[in-house]
C-alpha cells in the first residue's frame, strides 16, 4: 500500500517538491557558507519523493550549531516552506482521497521548519521511535 501511495504522491506532489528542494540545495552549495543547509535540502528532497514508510527523528548528536542554524533557516526559508506545506496539506485534505497526502504534507512540516539535527529513517527501523533513558 505504501508503494501505491508513494507513486501517487510522486505524481501529484513529490516530484515538484523534490525538485524545489534540490534546486535550493544546489544554490546552498554554490554559497559555500550554506553547505549544511544544502545537505539538509537534499535530505528533505529524498524524503519528499517517498514520504510513506519513512519518518523524521531527532539526531542525538545535534548540538548548538544545529540550533543556531535552525534559527537562521527558520527566518530565511523555514517559515515560507512550512506555510506552503500547510496550504497544500489543507488543500489535499479537502478531498476524501487526498487525506493521506495532506497528512504527508503535515508530516513534512517539522523537517522543513527546522531541518538541522534531524534524520529520516524507515518507519520500521527500531530507532525510529524516541528512546528514553531511565536512571
Strand order within the widest beta sheet: 1-2
Structural class: mainly alpha
What is the approximate shape?
globular
Which spans have pLDDT < 50 for at least 5 consecutive residues?
Answer: none
Share of residues in strands: 5-15%
Whole-number radius of gyration? 15 Å
Mind summarizing the main beta sheet?
Answer: 2 strands, antiparallel
| Total beta strand runs | 2
Mean pLDDT: 85
The helix/strand order is: HHEHHHE
Distance between the termini: 41 Å
How many separate domains? 1
Give the helix level as a range of percent.
55-70%
In DSSP terms (H or I, runs of 4 or more residues), the helix count works out at: 5
Keywords: Membrane, Transmembrane, Transmembrane helix
Transmembrane segments: 20-42, 62-83, 89-109
Protein name: Inner membrane component domain-containing protein
Domain Inner membrane component: 4-54, 68-118
In short:
This protein has 135 residues and is mainly α. The protein has helices at 2-30, 35-49, 64-93, 99-107, 109-113; strands at residues 54-58, 118-122.
SSE order and pairing:
Elements: H1 2-30, H2 35-49, E1 54-58, H3 64-93, H4 99-107, H5 109-113, E2 118-122
Antiparallel strand pairs: 1-2
Which properties best describe this structure?
UCP028777; 5 helices; 135 residues; Inner membrane component domain-containing protein; mainly alpha; two-stranded antiparallel sheet; 2 strands; YccF; membrane
